[in-house]
Design goal:
6-stranded parallel beta sheet; alpha/beta; globular
Length: 205
């Protein structure tokens, strides 16, 4: 068993489902103590309890990434309760669908508030702690940042922005001891299609 993260503390946003939830499980398997954040408190508590069964520490820290103050408070709670921060994964996001000419600007703003501004809030909250540990920053982008698809213009644009942020951070952080990796997953089994354009979870979808 790979225990490469033994003794490390990992914080993951958007961890109540999909990629974030599976990352939390995988980091735990590799020896990390894991803090999980998202809006759905019951799911977070359930996941944290599951992770603790492995013998590792786990902490549920509810927050909405569009609330900058809440994100900063979450990062500070992680460090206060788990002692440090070695890896921060900015994973929270959702997808607005519709042709560019048809999507209301309010939906575009909502898309960017979560996928871009929420990611930036996570980055800015985590970096001071990561500098202390010479840690790692991971941004979850998308294959959509390479390959636009009709009917997903808002989401695609947000992930292009994530790609640019990640590439810039990789250069800005060079030599500091902190790394930045941007991940671009393809299509995966998750609940992202069950979140509507207003960011509401729709289990019937």
């Amino acid at each position: 068993m790979d225990r490469s993260f033994e003794g490390k503390v990992v914080w993951i946003t958007g961890a109540s489902a999909g990629i974030g939830r599976e990352l939390a499980r995988e980091f735990t398997r590799r020896g990390a103590d894991v803090a999980v954040s998202a809006r759905r408190i019951e799911r977070l508590e359930e996941l944290a309890a599951e992770l603790r069964e492995s013998g590792r520490r786990s902490l549920a820290v509810p927050c909405d990434v569009v609330d900058e103050a809440a994100v900063k408070a979450a990062s500070e709670k992680v460090v206060a309760e788990l002692g440090r921060l070695d890896v921060a994964v900015a994973n929270a996001g959702f997808g607005v669908t519709g042709r560019i000419e048809d999507v209301p600007l309010a939906d575009f703003r909502r898309q960017f508030d979560t996928n871009v501004m929420g990611l930036l809030a996570t980055v800015q909250a985590a970096l001071p702690h990561l500098r202390e540990t010479k840690g790692r920053l991971a941004l979850v982008g998308s294959v959509s940042a390479m390959l636009p698809t009709p009917g997903n213009g808002a989401y695609t644009a947000s992930k292009y922005a994530v790609r640019a942020i990640g590439q810039t951070l990789a250069v800005e952080l060079a030599g500091t001891g902190v790394s930045c990796t941007t991940l671009h997953p393809g299509f995966v089994a998750s609940e992202v299609a069950q979140v509507d354009n207003q960011g509401r979870f729709r289990p019937e979808r």
